[in-house]
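Narrative progress, year one. The postdoctoral researcher (J.K.) led the effort to move from monomer predictions toward full complexes, under supervision of the PI. The following entry was the first complex the group processed end to end, covering 686 residues in total.
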Amino acid sequence: MNNSLLVVLVANGIGFGTPLLYASLGELLAERSGVLNLGVEGMMLIGAVTGFWTVERFHASTGAALAAAVGVAALAGAATSLIHAFLVITLRASQIVSGLALTIFAGAAGLSSYFGNDFNLGENPARHTFHTVFPASWQRWPIVGPIVFGHNVLVYVSWALVVLVSLYLTRTRLGLNLRAVGDAPAAADAMGINVAAYRYAHVLVGGALAGVAGATFTLAITPQWVDGITGGAGWIAIALVIFAFWRPELCLVGAYFFGALQDLAPELQARGIHLGPTALWTNTLPYLMTIVVLVLVSASSTRRWLGAPAALGTPYVREER
Amino acid sequence: MVAVPAASLVFAFFASGLVLLATGHNALSSYRRLFDAAFLNHGALGDTLVSATPLAFTGLAAAAAFRMRLFNIGGEGQLYIGAITAAAAGLYFGGSGGPSAFAIAAMVAAGCAGGAAWALIPGILRAFFRTNEIIVSLMLNYVAGYLLTYLIFNSQSYFRQTTGFNASVFPTSKELPSSAVWPAATVHVHGGVALPLGAGLAVLAAVLLWVLYARTRFGFEATVLGDSPRAARYAGMRTRRKIVAVMAISGAIAGLGGASQDGDFRHTLDADPNGLQRQFYGYSGIVVAALARYNPLAVLLVAFLIGGLQNAGNSLQGPDFPAGLVGVMQGIILFSALGGELLVRYRVRVRRRDRAGAAPAPEAT
């Protein structure tokens, strides 16, 4: 039963979807504050390379090394996002061009590749990797075994994070303030909320989560370093935020759905099932579905109802209030 | 006019120098070798043109759209689609013998049409549904990339070589017939510099684009639409048509860049994951356009400079010159061009905090 296509897809979809979930939760927080950050792919790669570097060079027990690696990846991701935050919040530069610049700067042909090559990280598999948490006998239980108990600790932390972000946005004062900053910065400013501080904080948290997402690749999914190892996952994460209507719980559903799609082509092939050009449509479906969702949300009436932050992408200029 | 781009370049070299120093390299000697490899070494200029030609196309494509504040960042995908359609035309119309004007013209037309069609998807969605063209064009880059890979690696398409020994070992694409290979003029200086036909087409496209924006009603209206959509609407300008037309022009230029990749340089439809798709010409084109401040003629010059950087980065890649430095520099160039632009627009005044504790704010002039 645990080898049936559906169970395998859900279980693997959770594994492949975890970096998408971390990155999209981070992007969601940044976008809820009104800042679009197209640099996710770059920040993820910085997290991936620095996390990998840490487990290679930091000699400690597996647990300590991995914890340090995730911490370093988060810090590096946050530091990278600081460039974007400074340019778009303080200097009010175009969020689109700045985000793209961040991906060019840090991405597959940029700083992450520079670090990887300069420190010769591409040679070996990771010295420490994340493994499944629960005993093997639990993982053999029908259905819930692979789906619930078959994962590493990063997956379970991401589940807690979804709950936390969801509670934060709907149940805490800070979260409500954040939504005010993203929807009506002038009104938020008048209420005495420091718009710039909120935006900085959430862009940085977004960067940290993107860094963790990148480390998920190099420490769990494919434990090694290759230039551009994330393979466009950062862009899928940006798409996912739109796809999930800016809601954390839908980010989880979408991330696992897109994750399962990544696994669909090899699974179908292994089972000898042919459904047209599988490699083409499974890979492109996340992007095509996002375009469809974008068209649906672009009518202004549905846009508000679906939860797009009203001030997304626009700098806040106090003098023009 | 020139101060911001020039200062951006200087700052980028300075900041990347810090990266080099921090990782234990000698920045000055690295730059020396970079400059030599880009422009001075034997045959360097020819190689620089190979990198500069596609950047000129993608830079012009970005400049054409960004001028009107249409953020077409789909140049990457439009270039792939142009390469696919142009390769189809070249394979279909080309024959043996020397370069045939008909086959080349067919490739140019097909490349433009393919790129334009791909750009029309975000263009039409933006014009009629007010869908964000940035995200749509970006998503389509990946769709185009997967399509390109699929045509050679996962299918028995028209473009794939299906006979011969190599084809049975590794998926390869068909070579273009010899009459579909674009000619190049050789200038006999410094060991011979090949001027590809594509470089000439890029210059032509730049001039046409400059005329369009500086000398025609269409270009004027597009600029007004970008700067002040409201004024344009009151003046009765047709917003939707213009969005669709500008996106088509932008995509056509990027698609032409794809055709030039087939005809000038690769002589096949390059779907190798480490080939065309690792060059990121579309994204670098945005750096080129921003540094040229969306001026088509300046795009040519900047494309040459950035092309030199890219060429040097490729040829120097090795233990004491880590790959990735070029991307770092391009990113910093774009950051500083962005920051510099704002320093020009806003006069920054530093004031002491007054008693109420108001933060010093940059003043809009």
